[in-house]
Amino acid sequence: MDWIDRMNAAVAYIEEHLTEDFDVEEAAAIAHCSSYHFQRIFGAMASVTVAEYVRRRRMSLAVADLRGGLSILDVAIKYGYSSPTSFNRAFQSVHGIPPSLAKLDGVTVKSFTPISFTVTVTGRGQLNYRIEDKPTFRVLGISTPLDMEGDPEMGGLYQFWEAAESSGLTAQIAALNDTGPRGLLGVMTGDDDLVDWQYCLATASTQPASEPLEELIVEAATWAIFPFEGGPKTIGALWERIIKEWMPTSGYEYTRGPEIEAYLGDTPSVEKYEIWIPITPASPDR
Protein backbone atom coordinates (compact mmCIF):
# COMPACT_ATOMS: atom_id res chain seq x y z
CA MET A 1 0.00 0.00 0.00
CA ASP A 2 1.61 3.28 -1.08
CA TRP A 3 1.35 6.72 0.50
CA ILE A 4 -1.68 7.86 -1.51
CA ASP A 5 -3.46 4.56 -0.82
CA ARG A 6 -2.90 5.05 2.91
CA MET A 7 -4.30 8.58 2.79
CA ASN A 8 -7.37 7.27 0.99
CA ALA A 9 -7.67 4.46 3.56
CA ALA A 10 -7.63 7.13 6.28
CA VAL A 11 -10.42 9.01 4.47
CA ALA A 12 -12.39 5.74 4.25
CA TYR A 13 -12.00 5.37 8.03
CA ILE A 14 -13.33 8.92 8.51
CA GLU A 15 -16.29 8.19 6.23
CA GLU A 16 -17.12 5.05 8.19
CA HIS A 17 -17.22 7.04 11.43
CA LEU A 18 -19.14 10.17 10.43
CA THR A 19 -21.91 9.28 12.89
CA GLU A 20 -19.43 8.60 15.70
CA ASP A 21 -16.72 10.45 17.61
CA PHE A 22 -13.98 9.17 15.36
CA ASP A 23 -10.36 9.20 16.53
CA VAL A 24 -8.13 11.38 14.33
CA GLU A 25 -5.11 9.58 15.75
CA GLU A 26 -6.47 6.31 14.35
CA ALA A 27 -6.88 7.95 10.94
CA ALA A 28 -3.29 9.19 11.23
CA ALA A 29 -2.08 5.70 12.16
CA ILE A 30 -3.73 4.32 9.03
CA ALA A 31 -1.79 6.96 7.04
CA HIS A 32 1.41 5.98 8.91
CA CYS A 33 2.09 9.41 10.38
CA SER A 34 1.43 11.47 13.50
CA SER A 35 -1.87 13.22 14.09
CA TYR A 36 -0.25 16.59 13.46
CA HIS A 37 1.44 15.55 10.22
CA PHE A 38 -1.72 13.81 8.99
CA GLN A 39 -3.74 16.97 9.47
CA ARG A 40 -1.01 19.06 7.83
CA ILE A 41 -0.90 16.74 4.80
CA PHE A 42 -4.69 16.48 4.59
CA GLY A 43 -5.14 20.24 4.74
CA ALA A 44 -2.54 20.90 2.05
CA MET A 45 -3.88 18.26 -0.32
CA ALA A 46 -7.59 18.84 0.25
CA SER A 47 -7.48 22.62 0.86
CA VAL A 48 -9.69 22.07 3.90
CA THR A 49 -8.95 20.98 7.47
CA VAL A 50 -9.95 17.54 8.69
CA ALA A 51 -12.46 19.09 11.10
CA GLU A 52 -14.06 21.18 8.35
CA TYR A 53 -14.18 18.19 5.99
CA VAL A 54 -15.98 16.14 8.64
CA ARG A 55 -18.41 19.00 9.31
CA ARG A 56 -19.20 19.42 5.61
CA ARG A 57 -19.71 15.70 5.06
CA ARG A 58 -21.94 15.36 8.13
CA MET A 59 -24.05 18.36 7.16
CA SER A 60 -24.30 17.10 3.57
CA LEU A 61 -25.66 13.77 4.81
CA ALA A 62 -27.88 15.54 7.33
CA VAL A 63 -29.89 17.12 4.50
CA ALA A 64 -30.96 13.68 3.25
CA ASP A 65 -31.90 12.65 6.80
CA LEU A 66 -34.03 15.76 7.30
CA ARG A 67 -35.69 15.34 3.91
CA GLY A 68 -36.31 11.70 4.82
CA GLY A 69 -38.42 12.67 7.82
CA LEU A 70 -36.03 12.59 10.79
CA SER A 71 -36.48 15.35 13.33
CA ILE A 72 -33.81 18.00 13.87
CA LEU A 73 -33.11 16.54 17.32
CA ASP A 74 -32.67 13.02 15.91
CA VAL A 75 -30.30 14.23 13.22
CA ALA A 76 -28.34 16.30 15.73
CA ILE A 77 -27.89 13.25 17.95
CA LYS A 78 -26.99 11.05 14.97
CA TYR A 79 -24.04 13.26 14.05
CA GLY A 80 -22.77 13.75 17.57
CA TYR A 81 -24.14 17.20 18.47
CA SER A 82 -25.07 17.73 22.09
CA SER A 83 -28.03 19.99 21.33
CA PRO A 84 -30.20 21.20 18.42
CA THR A 85 -28.62 24.64 18.92
CA SER A 86 -25.08 23.44 18.22
CA PHE A 87 -26.32 21.37 15.28
CA ASN A 88 -28.22 24.36 13.91
CA ARG A 89 -25.07 26.46 14.11
CA ALA A 90 -22.99 23.84 12.25
CA PHE A 91 -25.72 23.34 9.64
CA GLN A 92 -25.99 27.05 8.91
CA SER A 93 -22.20 27.40 8.66
CA VAL A 94 -22.25 24.90 5.79
CA HIS A 95 -25.56 25.54 4.03
CA GLY A 96 -26.31 29.14 4.95
CA ILE A 97 -29.84 28.24 6.12
CA PRO A 98 -31.29 26.66 9.29
CA PRO A 99 -32.05 22.92 9.17
CA SER A 100 -35.79 23.60 9.42
CA LEU A 101 -35.75 25.11 5.92
CA ALA A 102 -33.90 22.12 4.42
CA LYS A 103 -37.13 20.14 4.66
CA LEU A 104 -38.90 22.49 2.23
CA ASP A 105 -39.16 21.96 -1.53
CA GLY A 106 -37.10 24.22 -3.76
CA VAL A 107 -34.54 25.20 -1.10
CA THR A 108 -30.89 25.25 -2.26
CA VAL A 109 -28.38 23.34 -0.15
CA LYS A 110 -24.79 22.20 -0.69
CA SER A 111 -23.50 18.71 -1.40
CA PHE A 112 -19.98 17.63 -0.43
CA THR A 113 -18.89 14.26 -1.76
CA PRO A 114 -16.13 12.10 -0.20
CA ILE A 115 -12.57 13.14 -0.96
CA SER A 116 -10.26 10.87 -2.94
CA PHE A 117 -6.55 11.60 -3.29
CA THR A 118 -4.66 10.95 -6.52
CA VAL A 119 -1.20 11.66 -7.91
CA THR A 120 -1.25 14.15 -10.77
CA VAL A 121 1.45 15.52 -13.05
CA THR A 122 1.65 19.24 -12.38
CA GLY A 123 4.46 20.26 -14.73
CA ARG A 124 5.85 22.84 -12.29
CA GLY A 125 9.46 21.81 -12.87
CA GLN A 126 12.14 20.34 -10.66
CA LEU A 127 12.10 20.31 -6.89
CA ASN A 128 15.59 20.19 -5.36
CA TYR A 129 16.21 18.37 -2.10
CA ARG A 130 18.81 16.42 -0.16
CA ILE A 131 18.63 13.75 2.55
CA GLU A 132 20.78 14.32 5.65
CA ASP A 133 21.22 12.61 9.00
CA LYS A 134 21.60 15.26 11.70
CA PRO A 135 22.73 14.74 15.30
CA THR A 136 20.79 16.17 18.21
CA PHE A 137 21.11 19.94 18.50
CA ARG A 138 19.90 22.63 20.88
CA VAL A 139 18.09 25.85 20.01
CA LEU A 140 17.16 29.00 21.94
CA GLY A 141 14.18 31.14 21.08
CA ILE A 142 10.63 32.24 21.80
CA SER A 143 7.49 30.22 21.11
CA THR A 144 3.79 30.62 20.40
CA PRO A 145 0.99 28.04 20.21
CA LEU A 146 0.07 26.68 16.78
CA ASP A 147 -3.66 26.81 16.04
CA MET A 148 -4.03 24.55 13.00
CA GLU A 149 -7.83 24.49 13.18
CA GLY A 150 -8.51 28.14 13.90
CA ASP A 151 -5.66 29.38 11.71
CA PRO A 152 -4.94 26.64 9.11
CA GLU A 153 -2.92 29.00 6.91
CA MET A 154 -0.81 29.96 9.98
CA GLY A 155 -1.33 33.64 9.24
CA GLY A 156 -0.83 34.36 12.93
CA LEU A 157 2.85 33.54 12.56
CA TYR A 158 3.39 36.67 10.46
CA GLN A 159 2.24 38.78 13.42
CA PHE A 160 4.43 36.71 15.75
CA TRP A 161 7.52 37.40 13.61
CA GLU A 162 6.65 41.10 13.22
CA ALA A 163 6.29 41.51 16.98
CA ALA A 164 9.64 39.78 17.57
CA GLU A 165 11.38 41.99 15.01
CA SER A 166 9.88 45.24 16.32
CA SER A 167 10.89 44.38 19.89
CA GLY A 168 14.46 43.51 18.90
CA LEU A 169 14.11 39.86 19.91
CA THR A 170 14.82 38.55 16.40
CA ALA A 171 18.21 40.25 16.34
CA GLN A 172 18.91 39.08 19.89
CA ILE A 173 18.15 35.48 18.94
CA ALA A 174 20.16 35.62 15.69
CA ALA A 175 23.23 36.88 17.58
CA LEU A 176 23.25 33.67 19.66
CA ASN A 177 23.85 31.41 16.63
CA ASP A 178 27.21 29.80 17.37
CA THR A 179 26.70 26.27 16.04
CA GLY A 180 24.95 24.45 13.21
CA PRO A 181 22.49 24.72 11.65
CA ARG A 182 23.08 28.37 10.87
CA GLY A 183 20.51 31.15 10.58
CA LEU A 184 17.13 31.77 12.17
CA LEU A 185 14.88 28.74 12.53
CA GLY A 186 11.14 28.31 12.69
CA VAL A 187 10.67 25.04 14.61
CA MET A 188 7.20 23.47 14.71
CA THR A 189 7.13 20.87 17.45
CA GLY A 190 5.01 19.15 20.06
CA ASP A 191 3.38 15.85 20.91
CA ASP A 192 0.88 13.90 18.83
CA ASP A 193 -2.03 16.03 20.05
CA LEU A 194 -2.57 18.84 17.53
CA VAL A 195 -3.60 21.40 20.15
CA ASP A 196 -0.27 21.11 21.98
CA TRP A 197 1.99 22.02 19.07
CA GLN A 198 4.20 25.09 19.30
CA TYR A 199 6.08 27.28 16.85
CA CYS A 200 9.50 28.40 18.11
CA LEU A 201 11.43 31.26 16.50
CA ALA A 202 14.93 30.19 17.41
CA THR A 203 18.55 29.62 16.49
CA ALA A 204 21.04 26.83 17.20
CA SER A 205 23.15 27.87 20.16
CA THR A 206 25.33 26.64 23.01
CA GLN A 207 24.74 29.84 25.00
CA PRO A 208 22.84 29.76 28.32
CA ALA A 209 19.09 30.41 28.18
CA SER A 210 17.80 33.56 29.85
CA GLU A 211 14.36 35.19 29.93
CA PRO A 212 12.41 35.51 27.70
CA LEU A 213 14.26 32.84 25.70
CA GLU A 214 13.63 29.14 26.19
CA GLU A 215 15.58 26.03 25.30
CA LEU A 216 14.43 23.32 22.89
CA ILE A 217 16.25 20.10 22.05
CA VAL A 218 15.84 18.83 18.48
CA GLU A 219 16.50 15.10 18.54
CA ALA A 220 18.71 13.36 15.99
CA ALA A 221 16.79 12.47 12.84
CA THR A 222 16.94 11.91 9.11
CA TRP A 223 15.73 14.99 7.27
CA ALA A 224 14.56 15.76 3.76
CA ILE A 225 15.86 19.30 3.19
CA PHE A 226 14.45 21.52 0.46
CA PRO A 227 16.46 24.68 -0.40
CA PHE A 228 14.73 27.59 -2.07
CA GLU A 229 15.10 31.28 -2.88
CA GLY A 230 12.27 33.78 -3.13
CA GLY A 231 10.13 36.36 -1.42
CA PRO A 232 8.25 35.91 1.88
CA LYS A 233 5.15 34.38 0.27
CA THR A 234 6.96 31.60 -1.62
CA ILE A 235 7.57 29.40 1.39
CA GLY A 236 3.88 28.42 1.54
CA ALA A 237 4.00 27.38 -2.12
CA LEU A 238 7.08 25.24 -1.41
CA TRP A 239 5.30 23.49 1.48
CA GLU A 240 2.40 22.73 -0.86
CA ARG A 241 4.71 21.26 -3.51
CA ILE A 242 6.50 19.09 -0.95
CA ILE A 243 3.26 17.62 0.35
CA LYS A 244 1.43 17.30 -2.97
CA GLU A 245 4.27 16.41 -5.34
CA TRP A 246 7.25 15.05 -3.44
CA MET A 247 5.78 13.04 -0.57
CA PRO A 248 3.48 10.74 -2.61
CA THR A 249 6.27 9.46 -4.86
CA SER A 250 9.47 9.94 -2.84
CA GLY A 251 9.73 6.55 -1.16
CA TYR A 252 9.72 8.33 2.20
CA GLU A 253 7.08 9.30 4.71
CA TYR A 254 6.80 11.58 7.72
CA THR A 255 8.18 10.33 10.99
CA ARG A 256 7.58 11.86 14.40
CA GLY A 257 9.59 14.98 14.98
CA PRO A 258 9.54 18.72 14.38
CA GLU A 259 9.27 20.52 11.06
CA ILE A 260 11.87 23.25 10.55
CA GLU A 261 12.09 26.32 8.37
CA ALA A 262 15.69 27.60 8.20
CA TYR A 263 16.07 31.22 7.09
CA LEU A 264 19.49 31.80 5.53
CA GLY A 265 19.11 34.96 3.44
CA ASP A 266 21.14 38.12 3.79
CA THR A 267 18.63 40.52 2.20
CA PRO A 268 14.86 40.90 2.70
CA SER A 269 14.14 41.04 -1.04
CA VAL A 270 15.73 37.69 -1.96
CA GLU A 271 15.42 35.22 0.86
CA LYS A 272 17.28 31.96 1.03
CA TYR A 273 15.65 29.32 3.15
CA GLU A 274 15.26 25.59 3.65
CA ILE A 275 12.39 23.42 4.75
CA TRP A 276 13.32 20.38 6.84
CA ILE A 277 10.90 17.50 7.36
CA PRO A 278 11.70 14.41 9.46
CA ILE A 279 11.42 11.27 7.34
CA THR A 280 11.76 7.53 7.36
CA PRO A 281 11.67 5.03 4.47
CA ALA A 282 8.08 4.34 3.41
CA SER A 283 6.49 1.49 5.34
CA PRO A 284 5.67 -1.75 3.50
CA ASP A 285 2.11 -3.06 3.31
CA ARG A 286 0.61 -3.95 6.65
Protein traits:
alpha+beta, nine-stranded antiparallel sheet, 9 helices, 9 strands, elongated
Structure description:
This protein is α+β, with helices and mostly antiparallel strands and 286 residues long. 35% of the residues lie in helices and 21% in strands. The chain is built from 9 helices and 9 strands. It has helices at residues 3-16, 24-30, 35-46, 50-67, 72-78, 84-95, 156-167, 169-174, 234-246; strands spanning 130-134, 137-145, 184-189, 198-204, 214-218, 221-230, 252-254, 259-263, 271-281. Strands 1, 2, 3, 4, 5, 6, 7, 8 and 9 form a 9-stranded antiparallel sheet that branches. Helix 1 runs antiparallel to helix 2. The longest helix has 18 residues, at 50-67. The model has no long low-confidence stretch (mean pLDDT 84).
User: What proportion strand?
Assistant: 15-25%
Number of helices, counting only DSSP H or I runs of 4 residues or more: 9
Following the backbone from N to C, one meets helices and strands in this order, namely HHHHHHEEHHEEEEHEEE
Helix content: 25-40%
In brief, what are we looking at here?
By secondary structure, this protein is α+β, with helices and mostly antiparallel strands.
Write the layout of secondary structure elements.
Elements: H1 3-16, H2 24-30, H3 35-46, H4 50-67, H5 72-78, H6 84-95, E1 130-134, E2 137-145, H7 156-167, H8 169-174, E3 184-189, E4 198-204, E5 214-218, E6 221-230, H9 234-246, E7 252-254, E8 259-263, E9 271-281
Antiparallel strand pairs: 1-6, 2-4, 2-5, 3-4, 3-8, 6-9, 7-9, 8-9
Helix pairs in contact: 1-2, 2-3, 4-6, 5-6
